[in-house]
Design a protein that fits this description.
The complex is a heterodimer of chains A (674) and B (169). Chain A is of the alpha+beta class and 674 residues long. Helix content of chain A is 23%, strand content 16%. Chain B is mainly alpha-helical. The radius of gyration of chain B is 17 Å and the shape is globular. The chains are: A alpha+beta (674), B mainly alpha (169). At the A-B interface, α2, α10 and α11 of A face α1, α5, α6, β1 and β2 of B.
Chain lengths: 674, 169
């Protein structure tokens, strides 16, 4: 047992935990943060060095522990993925998606496919598409920076369109969130174009008076749009489901002017890592929190169990395990004690901790889990990617990774029939879509055709794709012809990404593996993940058709490849991870990095883990923050909403802490929920 | 007689399409060529089983260069199939190494898959020095020397990146 009793014990030092720590610390409250991962480094040069040397520059590649070691490559483990059972703080990485059926390479474990499923079966399970970090500062190290609000309609999907669920209070939830959206926008330092955003908000009838908050503006002027954006901005008269398509500059958490952090220099590397911290990350807020003098953080301290008092139902302590070396033995154990507790460990590790805490008499199924909702409704924005070559140079691979998107399709009557999406415009050429620049390079150096640019390929609309018809198929180039061909291709590469709204599905869930453990002996996640409804799958059909429509309208040549047919049964190397058939076509989905929904808020104790205060229905001094609280994944990137909800939770916790001693947490809940 | 380094740089310039002044500038604090030459020599010997293959490549280049051929003619002669498969593949790997800062492994086609390439990054400097970012008139992802807003303007011509006139921009 620690001797000091804190006002609050927080698990996790990402954006949510850091915001609450800062808000409470500056009010004089004593805060302890338990962070499972390694310390925030003195500077980011070590992470940059790891990134530069990484073969696969995935979102996690700069960060410890290492995502792959080519020296450990074997025929069974060609990428040299680390064995998660030997790691104290393993996490899921996108390289593990291809190894999802190999528990000695993949942190998550998965259920087997049910027998005899067809490749278009809604019951087929997939690998989860998105990853997160377990380090000081959390996953905002590798976030994109997109800082969009959700719309009132996002909060009442059930009421308006008959799908999913409403957020507590429906669209009134949005109104309650507006002042916190403003705080979040200021904390992140969002660069945004109010006029352009007003247009979208007005289209979607955001109240009051068509604006989204009194005296609202962005703390930074908008980031200038890229030449790629400009090419899409010239689209005219393209409509989808009766809605006009137009681009909107994206509000972004990166400096358009020098300030406390540097001005964006367009490193085109927001994910995995901004080398100059022009992009906000939670280490900014964490540093502010620590500077209050009231916040203490313990790194390499893994929360392993939550203790609950049998009589009062209140949390009385969080057990933890410490380690020094990531692969070494544990170095100690202890229990952190506070008046209140906050779980801020993101949407995989938070439910894992709740489910591991199964030794309390009245909560045998895990802490905060009387509803059996903990771990359920795991969601992501399932992504459809489309890519093409523009008619004229648009100079890809320059600027922040994304500076504009199509926001106008985020709401409409079509939402009764299919999932909504926003379309992100990529400035990174075919890097994500096709592992370029390396695939195109190899094609023209070695005479291969994996991009379809150097062979007899036709696109899905039957158009021949050989880049230079005067060259033979499988050309091998050198010298001036190589520089000119590569240049002409790279500077025309465009990519669209559709962030499709996945519905809450109680069977998409995080459970605990019965067999697989990490090196501390803690059970690893067991993840069931499907894309079960036609509502979601029809959005893929729409996205594919819309891409072709957009590319045709701008005179671009589409190169989107039809993915390989799904293989549901076979050896771990034979089965596919994210492919499905639907309506006679084959799709693959990508993760958006938006892990959502596993400890949701709701109006009823029976169907949710938290009330609208983000307070556990079961334990009045236990709060949770992060995207795990979202009842739906909605239509915008989640981080701004995550931050806003953290500010809101901080206010709720402060109210509890400042309440007269006679006032119990339960009474406080009744007052605030009215 | 040229040194191995002279031949290595001369051949690299011919094959990559980048000027010697770009890939091996007079003032060269990174000096990536001094990493690449021994690595190339060692890898080619190891992969071909022929410890003298690099020398043969350099000798051929030196004799072609002495005969006052154009870079285009020298490149064609170096990559001609009559030189043998291992010889040509070594030259192609040299191109890939300069462009990617990585050493490639070519995976042959099978009954169900196309031929493809995987590669290992050689070093931090190799990544940040790799030519593929220059040929797209940009910067290595994560290592920009440009200033805010450059992405809203056209870049300077390709020839400014390759050091060779005649490249399209």
């Amino acid at each position: 047992m620690t001797t000091q009793i804190y006002d609050i014990v927080i698990v996790g030092s990402g954006i949510s935990g850091s915001i609450v720590a800062y808000e409470l610390g500056r009010q004089g409250k004593k805060v302890l943060i338990l962070e499972a991962g390694q310390e925030v480094p003195v500077d980011r040069s070590g992470y940059m060095s790891t990134f530069f040397k990484a073969n696969a520059k995935t979102p996690e590649s700069p960060y410890p522990p290492t995502t792959q070691d080519p020296k450990q490559s074997t025929p069974e483990n060609p990428l040299g993925l680390p064995n998660p059972s030997l790691e104290n703080v393993p996490r899921y990485t996108v390289l593990q998606i291809g190894a999802w059926r190999k528990p000695d390479q993949c942190y998550f474990t998965y259920p087997p496919q049910a027998p005899n499923l067809k490749t278009d079966s809604p019951e087929a399970v997939f690998a989860f598409g998105s990853s997160y970090e377990r380090i000081g500062g959390g996953t905002t190290w590798h976030w994109l920076g997109t800082s969009l609000r959700l719309f009132p309609s996002d909060f009442e999907l059930k009421t308006r369109y008959g799908h999913g669920v409403d957020w507590p209070g429906g669209k009134t939830f949005y109104q309650g969130l507006v002042p916190y959206y403003e705080k979040a926008t200021n904390e992140i330092g969002v660069a945004g174009d109010k006029v352009a955003l007003d247009k979208i908000y007005q289209q979607f009838g955001v109240e009051p008076s068509g604006t989204y908050g009194p005296n609202y503006n962005y703390p930074m002027p908008p980031i200038v749009e890229s030449l790629v954006d400009t090419a899409f901005g010239e689209l005219q008269n393209v409509t989808v489901d009766g809605i006009n398509l137009f681009t909107t500059p994206t509000p972004q958490g990166r400096n358009s002017l020098p300030g406390d952090r540097r001005q964006c220099a367009g490193n085109t590397n927001c994910i995995p890592i901004c080398p100059i911290q022009a992009k906000y990350d939670a280490t900014v807020t964490l540093a502010n929190a620590l500077q209050t003098g009231n916040v203490e953080i313990r790194y390499r301290t893994v929360a392993s169990n939550i203790r609950v008092d049998d009589k009062s139902g209140k949390v009385i302590g969080i057990d933890y395990i410490t380690y020094d070396d990531h692969l070494g033995d544990k170095t100690g154990t202890g229990t952190a004690v506070g008046t209140t507790y906050l779980l801020a460990a993101h949407a995989i590790e938070t439910p894992r901790l709740l489910l591991m805490s199964n030794k309390n008499k009245n909560f045998p199924n895990g802490v905060a889990n009387s509803s059996d909702q903990v771990g359920r409704n795991l969601m992501d924005h399932v992504m459809y990617l489309a890519w093409a070559l523009a008619k004229d140079p648009i100079y890809a691979y320059r600027g922040p990774l994304s500076t504009s998107g199509f926001e106008s399709l985020r709401d409409g009557t079509f939402r009764s029939n299919r999932s909504a999406y926003r379309i992100e415009i990529g400035n990174e050429g075919w890097q994500w879509a096709s592992n370029d620049p390396y695939t195109t390079l190899a094609d023209f150096v070695f005479g291969q055709n994996n991009t379809q640019l150097n062979g007899d390929s036709k696109n899905q609309q039957g158009k021949p794709l050989r880049f230079d018809p005067s060259l033979p198929a499988n050309s091998t180039l050198f010298g001036a012809q190589l520089t000119q061909t590569l240049n002409a291709i790279y500077i025309r590469q465009i990519r669209l990404g559709y962030l499709i709204e996945q519905l809450p599905d109680p069977d998409n869930r995080v459970q605990l593996s019965a067999t697989a453990k990490d090196h501390l002996g803690l059970p690893r996640p067991y993840v069931t993940y499907r894309i079960r409804s036609n509502y979601e799958r029809d959005a893929f059909v729409s996205a594919k058709a819309v891409s072709t429509q957009i590319f045709n309208a701008m005179g671009a040549t589409e190169y989107t490849m039809k993915p390989p047919s799904p293989v549901l049964y076979g050896t771990p190397d034979q089965v596919t991870a994210t492919n499905f058939d639907y309506k006679g076509d084959t799709f693959t989905f990508y993760g958006a990095g938006h892990i959502v929904g596993t400890y949701r808020m709701g109006d009823k104790k029976e169907t949710s883990v938290l009330n609208s205060r983000q307070q556990s229905w079961d334990h009045s001094n236990l709060y949770m923050v992060g995207s795990g609280v979202f009842p739906t994944v909605a239509t915008g990137n989640p981080t701004l909403t995550i931050a806003a909800l953290a500010f809101q939770a901080a206010d709720n916790i402060l109210k509890d802490l400042n309440a007269p001693k006679t006032n119990t947490g339960a009474e406080q809940t009744a007052v605030d929920a009215s | 007689m040229n040194s191995d380094m002279d031949n290595f740089i001369g051949l690299s310039a011919v094959l990559t399409g980048f000027n010697e002044s770009v890939i091996a500038p007079d003032l060269d604090p990174v000096d990536i060529k001094s990493v690449y030459l021994p690595l190339f020599t060692q890898k080619i010997a190891q992969e071909s089983g022929n410890p003298s293959l690099t020398s043969q490549i350099f000798q051929k280049f030196e004799s072609l260069q002495a005969s006052k051929l154009t870079p285009q003619q020298i490149g064609q002669a170096m990559l001609d199939s009559t030189n043998g498969e291992a010889f040509v593949l070594a030259c192609r790997k040299l191109i890939f190494m300069w462009y990617a800062g990585a050493w490639p492994t070519v995976i042959p086609a099978t009954a169900t898959t196309q031929a493809s390439t995987v590669s290992d990054i050689i070093s931090e400097d190799a990544y940040t020095s790799s030519l593929v970012w220059q040929v797209m008139q940009s910067h290595p992802m994560g290592d920009s020397n440009y200033r805010y807003g450059y992405w809203a303007k056209d870049p300077v011509p390709l020839s400014d990146y390759t050091g060779n006139p005649g490249g399209q921009s």
